[in-house]
Amino acid sequence: MSSTASGTRNGTWRNWGGNVASRPAREVEPASVEELADAVRRAAEDGLKVKAVGTGHSFTSIAATDGVLIRPQLLTGIRRIDRDSMTVTVEAGTPLKRLNMALAREGLSLTNMGDIMEQTVSGATSTGTHGTGRESGSIAAQITGLELVTADGSVLHCSEKENPDVFAAARIGLGALGIVTAITFAVEPIFLLTAREEPMPFDTVLRDFDELWAENEHFEFYWFPHTGSTNTKRNNRSAGPQRPVGQVKALFEDEFLSNGVFQVAQWVGRAVPATIPAIAQISSKALSARTYTDIPYKVFTSPRRVRFVEMEYAVPRGAVVETLRELKTMVDRSDLKVSFPVEVRTAPADDITLSTASGRDSAYIAVHMAKGTPYMRYFTAAERIFTAHEGRPHWGKVHTRDAEYFAEVYPRFGEFTALRDRLDPDRLFQNDYLRRVLGA
């Protein structure tokens, strides 16, 4: 069991964050689409539910099952690169890291990506994993085609032209419509990004948020609770030359400070919660300003070795400043001790049925707590603020919303559930999480 993945021990599967566990009746590692389809058919014959799991980076129980757990580690690699259509088709179990590195060797890249790349491509897209972007959306928004094994064991191909209703929904399918076996992504010639990272006062970021968003292709920031400080990051395309972070500097800042020292700070904060505000003040000033230019995945992504539990909501982009002010007021007035920074990103509206950015320009606010630390009081207070702004929770991160709520905040929610009724009428892919968020 690697440090970046989930795993099964003594018959119990646990996710990366350690907050979800289940005991599947059996596990299957198919080596082909045909083997996977056969496993689905046999599960149905045996009266067992079926779920697929990647690296377990979801904090919800979206992949948990007491039935058949499909592990796609053998369904990996690039099937084909089409330079005429500028697409790449990749097996569903391929980790994003392997995809990014393989594309770079071919002189290609995804347009946008999230800030970690340990997930499988199918796990990341099925839950709506995203980065930040003024015009470029989530990883799922870059999908041009999908291959899906449905509840009867048949293989369904979908795109804008082939089964378009399934394509509209299955790009972020929550594992409810079938098991994704391959994904075709739009790619482009590899490019350079210049990253500008610098501290900035919280009040300044909120005052200038619209301007910072408009002036940068990719803008994000981290606010440190108990402080008035943020670290901002602006990524924009560059003509070069390539000037990566030096090896020694990267080792010191990205590993020693961002992971090593931060991990120690979490241990101290967990042992003595009263020290957390002081630690936050120090942490907010630990990283100095820097600028570097590199290929996309080396700018967009960074190592995350400190384990945590996370809640993230998408609110309308126009509501983000007010939402953040309310969040800060809540923390300041409470006796909560929050040791992890709050992450803020954006995405343009897209046309995916249950995307958190479906039909509206969105801003994402993510709250975290260290693994093993009580988190529900903080998350519950934050969620109350997010839902007051018609927030949509990330499908793979902690939340308490149900189908009744989602029917209100997703105008096309009924389209998704009707498609599920058609593709999986007997609920072969059902689990407790899907029963809550989609209804029975």
What does this structure look like?
With 440 residues, the chain is an alpha+beta fold. Helices cover 32% and strands 25% of the residues. The protein has 14 helices and 21 strands. It has helices at 33-45, 96-105, 121-126, 164-170, 202-207, 209-215, 247-271, 276-284, 296-300, 320-333, 376-388, 403-409, 413-423, 432-438, and strands at residues 7-9, 12-14, 21-22, 26-28, 50-52, 68-70, 78-82, 87-91, 108-109, 143-149, 155-159, 179-186, 188-189, 192-201, 218-223, 229-238, 290-294, 308-316, 342-347, 362-370, 392-393. The strands form five sheets. Strands 17-14-16-15-19-20-18-21 form an eight-stranded antiparallel beta sheet. The radius of gyration is 21 Å and the shape is globular. The relative contact order is 0.14. The mean pLDDT is 91.
Please supply descriptive tags for the structure shown above:
eight-stranded antiparallel sheet; five-stranded antiparallel sheet; globular; alpha+beta; single chain; 14 helices; 440 residues
